[in-house]
Design goal:
Helices cover 46% and strands 16% of the residues. It is an alpha/beta fold. Helix 8 links the parallel strand 4 and strand 5.
Length: 326
């Protein structure tokens, strides 16, 4: 009986949250995430041309840039910030606002982007080296006024990707280190569909959720989440109830197909069945119903790959309409 009353209580609380008046933003902010290694190594593109096209042709003015450890410190103690400098500098020229993500678990598979040398280090030495790199990144770019937020790790409490020895105490140490060096807000992210958000939300100044609609899982095949937009509103209000109100952004809204292998190894027909202009608009409409006002689209590199490698500019052109309307 007590279990029944507990479940009933949760249901009534959730129902109350869902029936509260919904304030839909008068305008939405749209941005993208850009991954250098995904663009260069997976899609086989000139990453600088792709990056500049996103800024100049699409007119993107909000962009999330992962500062991959494996790109910045390929050899222990030898740092190369040239590529990251380029991205930060070109964004600044166009007055684009940047989320700069630091840590070992950052966007794009295999999630944990750790240099080969660091894989051989002890857990303590690896963590020490990463904190040293975070120091260098924050100290290097904290003078850039167009860096809007720091992001610490990516979905750090979701057990997904090739990560090892991952724990909340080290995430806390990373957050403390960034806060000690700069006062800008820190984004912490979590899965929209697979997590309850509490661990990430309570640590965040700004909380970022992912939002994926259709995935391709090796066990169950192609699967669309049967979740209504109210699911996200309910979780937001529950977090606000327990941990206070905080800015909320969609840090990844699906705008490319979720595949089992890299795009060049999947038939184009299959990819375009999973993601196309119609689904793009459907997912945008879904997100608008959550009333989360700031949205970073996931797939700009793929749109460019379709256009440049396959002469299929439809996704790129549709995205251009979205950004040009801002």
């Amino acid at each position: 009986m007590r279990k029944f009353l507990f479940v009933l209580g949760l249901f009534l609380i959730a129902l109350w949250f869902l029936t509260q008046p919904l304030t839909v933003p008068a305008d939405f902010i749209y941005g993208v995430t850009f991954s250098l290694p995904y663009t260069r190594d997976t899609l086989g593109l000139d990453w600088q041309k792709a990056y500049l096209a996103i800024l100049d042709d699409l007119k993107v003015r909000y962009i999330r840039i992962p500062a991959y450890w494996v790109e910045l410190e390929k050899e222990k103690g030898k740092y190369d910030f040239g590529d990251l400098d380029f991205m930060v500098r070109e964004a600044e020229k166009r007055e684009a606002q940047v989320i700069l993500a630091v840590g070992e678990k950052l966007p794009r598979w295999p999630e944990c982007h750790i240099p080969a040398w660091a894989e051989q280090e002890s857990r303590e030495d690896r963590h020490r080296a990463l904190l040293n790199l975070i120091d260098k990144i924050v100290e290097r770019y904290r003078g850039a006024s167009h860096i809007r937020y720091w992001q610490v790790e990516n979905e750090p409490f979701l057990p997904f990707g090739g990560c090892k020895d991952y724990d909340k105490y080290f995430v806390d140490a990373e957050i403390s280190r960034v806060k000690s060096l700069d006062s800008r807000p820190i984004v912490v992210t979590d899965s929209g569909e697979l997590s309850v958000w509490a661990q990430a939300y309570k640590r965040a100044d700004v909380f970022g959720t992912t939002m994926y609609r259709t995935i391709w899982n090796k066990y169950i095949g192609i699967f669309t989440y049967p979740l209504r937009p109210g699911y996200f509103r309910m979780k937001q209000r529950l977090m606000e109830f327990f941990y206070g109100k905080k800015p909320l952004i969609v840090v990844e809204l699906q705008a490319e197909p979720w595949l089992l292998v890299r795009p060049p190894d999947v038939q184009l027909e299959t990819q375009l069945r999973l993601m196309n202009v119609e689904k793009f608009q459907e997912y945008l409409d879904y997100e608008r119903q959550t009333a989360i006002p700031e949205v970073y689209l996931w797939g700009a590199e793929w749109w460019y790959w379709l256009k440049e490698k396959h002469n299929k500019p439809e996704m790129w052109d549709e995205a251009k309409k979205l950004f040009s309307a801002k």
